[in-house]
Amino acid sequence: MTLDFVERFAASQTWLDAVSNRLQPVVRKAVAKTGRHGADFLDGVWLGAPLHPAATDVPVGAATAAFALDAIGAVTRSPSIDRQADGALVISVAGALAAATTGLADYRYLFGDTRRLAVAHGLMNAVGTSLNLASLGLRATGRRGAGRLTSALGLTVMGLAAHLGGELTYGRGVRVDPNAEMGGPRDYTPVLDEAELQGAELRRVDVEGEAVLLTRSVNGELCAIGNKCSHFGGPLAEGERDGDTVICPWHASRFDVCTGKVLGGPAVFPQPRFEVRAREGKIELRRA
Q1: Which segments of the chain have a pLDDT < 70?
Q2: Measured between alpha carbons, how far is 184 from 287 in angstroms, rounded to an integer?
Q3: Which of 27, 52, 101, 130 is 20 to 30 A away from residue 78, measured at CA?
Q4: For the whole model, what pTM was predicted?
Q5: Tens of pLDDT along 36-55?
Q6: Alpha-carbon distances, residue 216 vs 209, 220, 247, 288 (angstroms)
Q7: SS3 214
Q8: Where are the alpha helices (DSSP H) in 79-204?
Q9: Which helix (H) or strand (E) holds 247?
Q10: How many CB atoms lie within 10 A of CB 11?
Q11: What is the pLDDT of residues 189-229, one digit of tens each?
Q12: CA within 13 Å, CB half, 219
């Protein structure tokens, strides 16, 4: 119940919208200035999965290790254990900076109360990291007891922030592949008269409740991939085309029209691919 309260409380803080209205455009410009390769790195295109969730393991894990080592050090009074606790806390702070950078990249396209939760998540992590920095200062000046208490408080705040992060992913579906459960026919199914697909046209067809992007490659090969962008579900058939690349109209993710491979973020998951053939004047497709 306590964790549910934290989520509800964060989502109800409408003043966070004013923060986002100022912050989000700045973040978008900053990420854009890194260039396509920089943005793809922050989004996790090279990893094939969102980078931010993986990056958060470092600060939370290291802070937890520091807490455990502090408890052992308090019992054993071992200077070696104390140094290890301090080192783990340093790693936590450094890891938090990296996680914040990737988190801001994810945040740049959020909206509504999901964006509000993301701001609360970020602010709480900033508070937790600040407490850990203060703890390091206390430890450095010989006030180890106060330092242990401060970092324990920091870990508590980071833990609550991590809960909000989990809600963003598992509850709100942020950075989850919307095509993960996509179906489609197992047998070739006619979807369009062959004469209706003109040149390099991007054409949406619907089959068994699934939206599919149907087109031809520059060499005339019939190609079909899922129409719903794996980033935030943008309609690819309404996007632009660059050779055999389709560009999502919402956030400019880029995919190969024949293989569904990600060619540019913020999307990190490939599009589902369909096998296509022309038979007796009809274009038929089935799930690959």
Answers
A1: 1-2
A2: 6
A3: 130
A4: 0.85
A5: 999 999 999 999 999 999 99
A6: 22, 5, 15, 17
A7: strand
A8: 79-107, 112-140, 144-166
A9: strand 245-247
A10: 17
A11: 999 999 999 888 999 999 998 999 999 999 999 999 999 99
A12: 4
What percent of the chain is helix, strand and coil (3-state, nearest 5)? 55, 15, 30
**Rounded CA gap, 162 and 158, in Å?**
6
Token readout for 27 is 């973040």
Token pair 């010989």 is at which residue?
142
**Residue labelled with tokens 């293989």:** 259
List the alpha helices (DSSP H) in 12-50: 15-33, 35-43
3-class state of residue 145 by DSSP? helix
C-alpha 89/C-alpha 64 separation (Å) is: 9
Other CB atoms within 10 Å distance of the CB of residue 171:
12
Crossing angle of helices 79-107 and 15-33, rounded to 10°: 90
Question: How high is the pLDDT of residue 219?
Answer: 92
What would the two tokens of residue 38 be?
Answer: 């920089």
Q: Which two tokens stand for residue 197?
A: 């697909």
> Tokens standing for 242?
């660059």
